[in-house]
Amino acid sequence: MPKQTESPAKQITGFIAKFDAANGKLIRAARTAIRKRYPTATEIVYDNYNFFVIGYSPTARPSDAIFSIAAAANGVGIAFMHGATLKDPDGILQGSGVQNRFLRLKNAATLSEPAVVALFNAAVTQSKVQFPESGRGATIVKSISGKQRPRRYK
């Protein structure tokens, strides 16, 4: 388990290292692409029992998060916190929850597909709190679970 004195960047590197090479590469590519598109977003990181999650929020409050990268041994996805209310004309969102919807990332290029870009834009637009117009969002490691499901298939 990472030490609390480690920087968030070093902790995240350690969290991602638990995954196989393909998923690790996809997590890093998704994070880079989202960070480039939303540089003022605050990253809120959880290395929990079921998933490794990086939430993107206009503030340090997890309840303000708009979307997140969610990774497990079986793959990487993007979760839209209020995805159930997003227009999804291409039917790419999965899930049947009351609030959350997600899409699985086949590869990093998925993030640049017009239908996916439209979902990101719609999610940001409908958010009650908007990303700051300037600055650089912080990275906050919120929780680390001592017990976790395997991040790799054996």
Account of the 3D structure:
The protein is an alpha+beta fold. The chain has one domain (8-143). The chain contains three helices and six strands, in the order H-H-E-E-E-E-E-H-E. It has a six-stranded mixed sheet with strand order 5-4-3-2-1-6, covered by helices on one side. The chain is globular, with a radius of gyration of 15 Å. The two termini are 21 Å apart.
What is the makeup of the main sheet?
6 strands, mixed
Low-pLDDT sequence parts: none
- Structural class of the helices, strands and pairings? alpha+beta
Tertiary shape: globular
Keywords:
154 residues; alpha+beta; 6-stranded mixed beta sheet; globular
Entry summary:
This protein is an alpha+beta fold and about 150 residues long. The protein has helices spanning about 10-15, 20-35, 115-125; strands spanning about 40-45, 50-55, 65-70, 75-80, 100-105, 140-145. Strand 1 (about 40-45) and strand 2 form a beta hairpin.
